[in-house]
Write a structure and sequence with these properties.
It is built from 27 helices and 14 strands. The chain has a four-stranded parallel β-sheet with strand order 8-7-9-10, covered by helices on one side. The protein has a four-stranded mixed β-sheet with strand order 11-13-14-12. Strands 1-2 form a two-stranded antiparallel sheet. β3 and β4 form a beta hairpin. The chain starts with a helix and ends in a 6-residue tail after the last helix. The C terminus is likely disordered.
Length: 673
């Protein structure tokens, strides 16, 4: 097990793989002497060179980490970060990952004796490992074969290898948007942000709608494809049908692949375009294609049978039928191609809602289309959500203005929507359900509250956000009740308060925690959007890597592509699409004469540049909610724009955080806090 300081040193080098880091910089960051850094570096170099990484050390330049064997290196990290005393179980898992990495990803062949020597195990133990691995490979039609002079190796199609790699090495149950898009040791030179923008651009333009979960699956698949092609592995050609829908989606796939070719300076074979077409057909909802009448008839027949059993008029439910058709069309493409989705909600559905799940399995057997296929539990779970949503809807429903954001598809979104209607019918008017990537200015128009099933704590919106589970648990209900109690149902001016007895001290502490005089500037002369962003981003770059500023500005641009970061005619709140900072930071710009932010917003006078932490953002919500409240308070805006210095701004802003009345806000000026 590594010492904590060695862990910290390695973590810092991992985060800064693109450049050399001097011992002086490491000493300052880790609060160690340069000599101690050199001693730790010497020890790490010996260890890492044996576990898939090269530890470079150059005079005057410093140190740099290069990962040559990603999975071997990840296994080494896993062992050294392990805290629990379950080494036997970890060893089994690690051995199998190592074997699969060598056989499937690196396409190597091993004599059994060589593999026994590498893993320090007996023939009996290795035989048990291989038996378990064969079971893992079986659903993907991958086989462990052997030849006398070659040893053991994997046979099977490249497309099946890729599916196995994604499912085995990168499968996740976390509902965070960037959770599994950050394996820097495997995807060394691939930008997930770049590929995501390409997929979003082309799919939006062509009318193909993807859920957040499937967007990430396709982006991850494309990243793996680029990696595999760079290593010389290509897909076999497949035969596409000549349907209108297939031809239209093929054109979209072609555009995506051409942009990836240009971005990575690689040649992509036709088979990759064909297979991406299948992926988009299997995961997307194409609004330009009319649904097959046969699917309509099949759904009508099944719903009528279900209606007789449960007593609810679901055969007349237009919304349910529409959602089922949109789900079933790509699902049938998947089934015909031997593809099936993973469902991050499967475990929770089978654990807490098993009767619904078993009913959905039984109803599938009534479908002429679906009964032809062997359907896995992940796909059944998606259909279960539609069933649960339909049943919930007939319990109770009413009105008030709330947008629901959900990443895992329309079935889960409808379930959350109907549970919210049942629990809060007299308070909420649910005006829509969206995926994260569908949230734009139009979707946010006239919305007073966002209830989200994904973590949006690092994103700033003009209205309050409450994060819940799609199943709306007891703790979620308490959270929403807390919101209504403190807002007195006035959604436009809500500022959440957790501990009213210590509110005054908390507000000041939060403000001082995230910003100070060095994060503040007043522009008395004319300036530009670019200059303000450049200087404010410099302020929050302290103690960050050399590449931080560029990545921050790129992420701010990407966030603005999704929806506006201008909150009013005078306020802009630039912030990244994903959290980048070690600690949350806020840089503040005051421009009394205004600046042109865009053609629509030509007189921005207050700029709050927020850089949330990828680790912990406690207290940041109090700041962002105050900015939201400031939008509706022109007198407070005027006072902040006319401040003399940072301390004047601080006093007025903290008073606004406390909910001070407008005349109090104006009266308390001129004294430092």
């Amino acid at each position: 097990m590594m010492k904590q300081k060695e862990n910290d040193l390695l973590r810092y080098l991992l985060d800064n793989q693109d450049h050399f880091v001097t011992s002086e910089e490491l000493a300052e960051v880790l609060s160690l002497s340069s000599r101690t850094i050199r001693n730790y570096a010497k020890r790490l170099k010996t260890q890492l060179n044996m576990h898939g990484a090269t530890f470079e050390a150059k005079p005057s330049l410093g140190y740099r980490l290069h990962i040559s064997q990603p999975v071997a290196f990840d296994l080494y990290l896993t062992k050294n970060y392990q805290l629990a005393d379950d080494s036997v179980e970890i060893d089994v898992s690690d051995r199998q990952k190592y074997i699969l990495n060598k056989l499937v990803i690196e396409n190597e062949a091993f004599p059994i004796d060589d593999l026994m020597d590498r893993l320090f195990v007996t023939r009996s133990t290795l035989s048990k490992d291989l038996s378990m691995i064969r079971k893992e490979l079986m659903p993907y039609e991958l086989v462990i074969d052997s030849k006398p002079n070659k040893g053991i190796f994997i046979t099977g199609l490249e497309r099946n290898r890729r599916h196995f790699i994604l499912d085995y090495f990168f499968n996740h149950s976390d509902n965070s948007l960037q959770h599994y898009m950050s394996n820097k040791s495997f995807f060394k030179r691939i930008s997930f942000d770049q590929i995501t923008i390409i997929v979003l651009d082309e799919c939006r333009e062509s009318g193909i709608h993807l859920t957040d979960f499937t967007i990430q699956n396709i982006v991850l698949y494309l990243a793996l494809s680029v990696q595999r092609m760079a290593e010389g592995f290509e897909l076999q050609n497949i035969q596409l049908d000549d349907k209108v829908e297939t031809r239209s989606v093929y054109i979209v796939a072609q555009k995506i692949i051409r942009r990836i070719e240009n971005g990575y300076q690689i040649h992509v074979p036709e088979s990759e375009v064909e297979y991406l077409t299948i992926q988009l057909l299997a995961n997307g909802k194409n609004t330009t294609i009319i649904s097959d009448a046969g699917i309509h008839d099949d759904i009508d027949s099944v719903l009528q049978k279900i209606e007789l059993e449960i007593g609810y008029p679901i055969s007349q439910d237009y919304e349910l039928k529409k959602n089922l058709i949109e789900h079933l069309k790509p699902m049938l493409v998947r089934l015909e191609q031997g593809l099936q989705l993973k469902n991050p909600l499967l475990h929770e559905i089978k654990t807490n809602y098993l009767p619904y799940f078993l009913d959905a399995k039984r109803y599938i057997s009534w479908s002429t289309y679906l009964s032809q296929f062997e359907i896995n539990d992940d796909e059944v779970a998606y259909l279960t959500l539609h069933l649960m949503a339909a049943v919930e809807k007939y319990q109770d429903f009413n009105k008030p203005r709330t947008l629901i954001i959900c990443a895992t598809g329309y079935g889960s979104a409808q379930l959350l929507k109907n549970r919210l209607k049942k629990e809060y019918s007299e308070y909420l008017n649910i005006v829509g359900v969206k995926g994260y990537y569908e949230v734009d200015n139009l979707a946010l128009a006239d919305v007073d509250l966002i209830i989200s099933a994904i973590d949006l704590s690092t994103q700033i919106f003009k209205v309050p956000v409450i994060q819940v589970s799609i199943f709306l648990t007891e703790s979620d209900i308490k959270k929403i009740n807390h919101f209504f109690y403190h807002s007195r149902t006035n959604l436009n001016h809500h500022i959440e308060i957790n501990d009213e007895s210590s509110l005054e001290n908390d507000q000041l502490n939060y403000f001082e925690q995230f910003t100070d005089e060095s994060y503040f500037k007043i522009w008395q002369d004319s300036t530009t959007r670019e200059e303000v962003l450049d200087q404010l981003s410099d302020m929050v770059t302290k103690n960050e890597s050399t590449s931080f500023k560029k990545e921050l500005l790129d992420q701010i641009d990407q966030r603005e592509l999704l929806s506006a970061i201008t909150f009013s005619n005078t306020i802009a709140v630039p912030h990244p699409a994903k959290a980048l900072s070690k600690v949350p930071q806020i840089a503040i710009g005051v421009i009394p004469n205004g600046l042109k932010w865009s053609d629509k917003y030509t007189n921005i006078k207050l700029v709050f540049l927020l850089s949330p932490s990828y680790w912990n953002n406690q207290g940041l919500t109090a700041i962002t909610q105050t900015i939201v409240a400031l939008v509706e308070n022109p007198e407070a805006q005027s006072d902040l724009i006319s401040v003399k210095d940072f301390y004047d701004f601080q006093q007025k802003f903290v008073l606004l955080m406390k909910g001070g009345r407008k005349h109090e806000f104006r009266r308390n000026t001129g004294h430092r806090i």
